[in-house]
Amino acid sequence: MIRFIDVHKSYRVEGKDVPALEPFSLEIADGEVFGIIGHSGAGKSTLVRLINLLERPTGGRILVGDTDITALSDAPLRAARQRIGMIFQHFNLLASQTVVENVAFPLRLAGDKDTKAIRARADELLQHVGLSVHANKYPSQLSGGQKQRVGIARALANHPSILLCDEATSALDPQTTASVLDLLAQINRELKLTIVLITHEMDVVRRVCDRVAVLDTGRIVEHGAVADVFLHPKHPTTRRFVNEALPEEAAGERLPYEHVPGRIMRLSFRGEATWSPTLGRVTRETGVDFNILAGRIDRIKDLPYGQLTLAMQGANVDAALRALREAGIEVEELAR
Ligand SMILES: Nc1ncnc2c1ncn2[C@@H]1O[C@H](COP(=O)(O)OP(=O)(O)OP(=O)(O)O)[C@@H](O)[C@H]1O
């Protein structure tokens, strides 16, 4: 568990304290993938850098497991940091060292002198991220996705329990982003480590995160399970992020409904409900007519979900809505 307790952070700029993070408390559970989403300057990097004390909080306490890392002296802090890996947007690899030397670097830094054991561990890590054949290349000879895989292998070298990802896919094309996110999800599953991931894209959150916090100018404006935040965003900033992740035609709210007859409803299906023909059954039984205005079926991490925007007409719309809710479908009225 990572716990932020009444933490806040200001930077000293030209003799003045400028707040970067307003006081907040937050818990990140062991083994979860936790997303932090926000626009540029919202405070995302500051927040994750507090976890390994690359930045010190101005106030409050940060517990990693049972240890208050803000109270540690240098030597135990160095040891605690070895259990926290980090990957970066621009990979931060050593250009003059080969791939395998880059991966071995943190092992040497940790004081390991057994060169054979170091090489064996680095080879094992490279195999894990699918880069064994590139072991003796230099970073400049790799693609962006391959460089990030080296970054991931290096971050895992000392068997961390936490992996911090600072915009790890922002410099990558969509296909490479998907493969790096798949690798992170696999690592999370297999090694059971906690991943804290910063991004400015809701789609990244949707694909890999279990929970998410939305940051807006230094404040956490919303946080919760990704399915809840994604399907029912409350804060305007969250809504904007969600809408950016949806294709134009599926972001129902943006369509003009003034001239569409009927009540405009948005139905959200999760899990098994996504595959059952409940809407057909309920409308048949209640005699309600509907017209589909927008819709999508997709996944939030491993959870299938569907969203439909409908215009519903007939005498029994309220009864139909009740029956839909009873069948586990979430129903929101967008316009009447
Ligand atoms: N070392 C620093 N000194 C002074 N101000 C800083 C420092 N680092 C960050 N800031 C300021 O703190 C605020 C939050 O910055 P931070 O880098 O955490 O945001 P971010 O959400 O990660 O942004 P980006 O997505 O652009 O990286 C910004 O206003 C930034 O200018």
From TrEMBL:
InterPro entries: AAA+_ATPase (IPR003593), ABC_transporter-like_ATP-bd (IPR003439), ABC_transporter-like_CS (IPR017871), ACT-like_dom_sf (IPR045865), MetN_ABC (IPR041701), MetN_ABC_transporter-like (IPR050086), NIL_domain (IPR018449), P-loop_NTPase (IPR027417). Residues 2-242 form the ABC transporter domain. GO terms for cellular component: plasma membrane. It is a peripheral membrane protein. The keyword Transferase does not apply. PROSITE patterns: ABC_TRANSPORTER_1 (PS00211), ABC_TRANSPORTER_2 (PS50893). One of its GO terms (molecular function) is ATP hydrolysis activity. It comes from the Bacteria. It is found in: Cell inner membrane. This is Cell division ATP-binding protein FtsE. It comes from Dyella monticola.
